[in-house]
Amino acid sequence: MKEQSLSIIYVTLVLVLLGISCDKQSSSDLVIATSANMQYAIEDIILAFEQDHHISCQTVVSSSGKLTAQITSGAPYDLFFSADKKYPEQLYHKGLTVDTPSVYAYGHLALWSMTIEELNIASLNTSTVNHIAIANPKTAPYGLAAEQMLDFYNLSSLTNKLVFGESISQVNQFVKSEVAEVGVTSLSVVLSPILKDQGHWMKVDSKSYQPIAQSMVVVSKSKAKLESAELFKKFVGTQEARLILEKYGFSFQD
Asked: What is the three-state SS of the chain?
């Protein structure tokens, strides 16, 4: 009951804040809920989309699980970019989406550190690493993939070193502030222009975790925004958008 009340309060605040911002926007502007690993890539995609279609967009960034909970509670988002297929499919089966979810790209894990230059899987089990930051596996698909990776390399015993972030964004904060010597983050983050020259990173072998099939779905409740939302979804499948996603380390399985 307490969690439900907190969720209602949060969504009410989101509605108020978006209502204030929308006073300065046209009714066709889009609100895009996106998983934290897509934060930087989606900004570049939005810039390209706005130039082509002259439709303004704003983003709300959080873990896929939390965004799903907010949409379920009525948050006024128009599109949802999740870091997996599970959450969009949950919304679809609840009748909360306009269309069926579709995979737009596959994400990849990376290890990232500000202090360890020769970074590799073995370094996680050394005395120089006291804290390993991962996203919450219960709400963040990249956190679940991080757990799978630790299991694959027989490193599940390192649970005493784990520091959990609410999302990939908080994992990145732990790494940048050196709260954690190593973070298991997304490849898209360490390849972003704002972070690619900070610290040291390595791509994790994709065989060590289940494929991260990132999905998108239209969730708009506004008929006035449906056409714009569908245009954005279509744009993400264009060669122009794919080149942006590739720049951030995403891959495709055509």
From this structure: CHHHHHHHHHHHHHHHHHHHHHCCCCCCCEEEEEEHHHHHHHHHHHHHHHHHHCCCEEEEEECHHHHHHHHHCCCCCCEEECCCCHHHHHHHHCCCCCCCCEEEEEECEEEEECCCCCCCHHHHHCCCCCCEEEECCCCCHHHHHHHHHHHHCCCHHHHHHEEEECCHHHHHHHHHCCCCCEEEEEHHHHCCCCCCCCCEEEECCHHHCCCEEEEEEECCCCHHHHHHHHHHHHHHCCHHHHHHHHHCCCECCC
Q: Tell if the pTM clears 0.90, that is, is over it.
A: no
Here the tokens at position 168 are: 């990939």
* Residues 53, 87: Cα–Cα separation, whole Å: 29
Domains of the chain (ranges, CATH numbers): 2-106+212-247 (3.40.190.10), 108-208 (3.40.190.10)
Furthest-apart CA pair in the chain: how many Å? 57
Kindly report, residue by residue over 40-57, the tens digit of the pLDDT: 999 999 999 999 998 999
CB 90 within 8 A of CB 139: no
Q: How far apart are CA 78 and CA 56, in angstroms?
A: 12
Q: Is the dihedral of CA 98, 101, 103, 107 positive or negative?
A: positive
Which positions of the chain have pLDDT values less than 70? 1-28, 254
